[in-house]
């Protein structure tokens, strides 16, 4: 294979990877310009290796197939789970599609490579805001999600009884059912920890945040936090 031909194919793959990565970098995603360019360039190099370096009588598509599975492992590294939410799926899919664009460029199917890159960029650029708008429009029509909330307050001994009452009434009783209030006196010589458990048929983080803000302003309160079972807590410390 001539050097000019090699540089042309790999160069096209790199440029298309940069074009795809620009949109990811602009949105401050985990995989941006450099990652997309390297994935596209590497895919082109592997395909050229498969087509020109191995025995022509062998299965020259074997390396191309391994590109698909190999990039899958790379994409798994950008998928993150945060509470009930999963992020990075779109970036992982973009990495996978970028590998396909690079492979097309490596095979010198440049028209298909250009079209593929344009479709990937357009899909990320226009479909994401459209999807977010649809989510907002459908948010009131989705099935309600039940949740168990826990409010925890660290306060001084002198205001323990007063805070116990306030804590039990911190969340709206028409939507939240109080399951119980606990006490831990092992916080120190002058403070105690109170915690109340609430159940609700519809998850409502705004009410929990409002309760934390209200409780944190009470005299004698050191810190307040809310949490949901199996999730991390949100602190509001004074």
UniProtKB/TrEMBL annotation:
InterPro entries in the cross-refs: MgtC-like_C, MgtC/SapB/SrpB/YhiD_fam, MgtC_SapB_SrpB_YhiD_N
Cellular compartments annotated: Cell membrane
Domain MgtC-like C-terminal: 149-226
Membrane topology summary: Multi-pass membrane protein
GO cellular component: plasma membrane
Record field: transmembrane: 35-54, 60-80, 87-108, 114-132
Keywords carried by this UniProt record: Cell membrane, Membrane, Transmembrane, Transmembrane helix
Pfam assignment, any one: MgtC_SapB_C
Residue ranges of domain MgtC/SapB/SrpB/YhiD N-terminal in the record: 12-130
Gene3D superfamilies xrefs: 3.30.70.260
Record-linked PANTHER family: PROTEIN MGTC
Protein name (Swiss-Prot/TrEMBL): MgtC/SapB family protein
Species this chain originates from: Mycobacterium yunnanensis
């Amino acid at each position: 294979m001539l050097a000019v031909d090699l540089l042309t194919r790999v160069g096209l793959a790199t440029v298309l990877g940069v074009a795809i990565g620009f949109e990811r970098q602009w949105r401050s995603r985990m995989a941006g310009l450099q990652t997309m360019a390297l994935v596209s360039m590497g895919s082109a190099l592997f395909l050229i290796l498969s087509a020109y370096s191995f025995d022509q009588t062998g299965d020259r598509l074997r390396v191309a197939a391994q590109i698909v599975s190999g990039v899958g492992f790379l994409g798994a590294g950008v998928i993150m789970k945060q509470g009930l939410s999963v992020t990075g799926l779109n970036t992982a899919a973009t990495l996978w599609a970028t590998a396909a664009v690079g492979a097309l460029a490596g095979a010198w199917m440049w028209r298909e490579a250009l079209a593929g890159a344009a479709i990937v960029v357009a899909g990320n650029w226009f479909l994401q805001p459209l999807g977010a708008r649809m989510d907002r429009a459908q948010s009131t029509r989705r099935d309600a999600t039940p949740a168990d909330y826990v409010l925890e307050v660290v306060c001084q001994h002198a205001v323990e009884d007063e805070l116990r009452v306030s804590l039990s009434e911190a969340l709206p009783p028409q939507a939240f059912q109080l399951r119980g209030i606990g006490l831990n006196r092992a916080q120190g010589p002058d403070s105690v920890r109170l915690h109340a458990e609430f159940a609700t048929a519809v998850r409502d983080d705004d009410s929990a945040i409002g309760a934390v803000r209200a409780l944190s302003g009470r005299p004698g309160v050191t810190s307040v936090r809310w949490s949901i079972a199996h999730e991390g807590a949100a602190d509001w410390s004074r």
